[in-house]
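Most newcomers find our protein records easier to grasp once they have seen one. Sequence and backbone structure share a record, each on its own labelled line. To make this concrete, we reproduce a full record directly below:
***
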Amino acid sequence: MPDGTRRPDRTTPSPDIAASDLRIPVILELVPLATCLITRGAVLTIDQLATALYRLPGDDMPVLLDALYRHRLITDHTLSGFVGLAWSNAERPDLTLGHDRWRTLFTAAGYTDDGRRTPRPAESLRLYRGSVADRRTDWSWTDSRQVARTYAAGGFGGRLPGAIWTALVNPERLLARNTDRDEAEYVIDTAGLTITPVSGGAVLVEHIT
C-alpha cells in the first residue's frame, strides 16, 4: 500500500533548470547517477526516465526508480510505464526491493499490461509459479504451466529444482502483467494468499522423446 504521503503529480521541471541541463548524464553506476538526478531536482519526462533506467544493469533499475519516486522526480503517470519494466528486468526483483516498496510503486502506477495502465481482469485467475518451497510466496507468477514447469526444473540463473505451485488469484491482488520475455508473467501480491503444490509438490519436468 502507499506509504501514507501522497506525492504531487508534477509534470514539468523546475523553471530555474536550463534546458541544456536536462540531458541524462552518461553515468553507468547506480549511486552516482541517482545522486546526480536527485541533486538536480528536475522532474523527469518519460524519455528521460527511459534513458536513465537503461544506463544501468537490470537489477539496479528498480532501485533507481524507487529513489526517483521517493524524491518526487517522477509522476504516477510516468511510473506506470516503467514499474513493470523494472520488475521484469531484475533477475530477482523480490530481493532487489522489499515488498512494501514494490506495493507503493505498483499502487501508484495502477494495474499495467506491458507498461500500459488498464483495468484489472474482472475475474480471479488460476496462476502458477515454479520455484523451491522457500520462494513460493515471491511475486512473479504465470498463467502458463509450461513456463512454471521450466522454472521448477531449475538449472539456470543459479536456481535449484523446485515444484510447481498454484493459486486462485483475486483481481485485487494483480499488480501488473508483463509479456516481453514470453513468460506470460503476472506480478501478484501474495500476502495471505493460499498457495498449494501441483501434484503433491514434486518437480515436474516433461521429458521429450
Q: What stands out?
A: The chain has eight helices and eight strands. The beta strands are 112-113, 116-117, 125-131, 140-142, 163-169, 174-178, 185-188, 196-197.
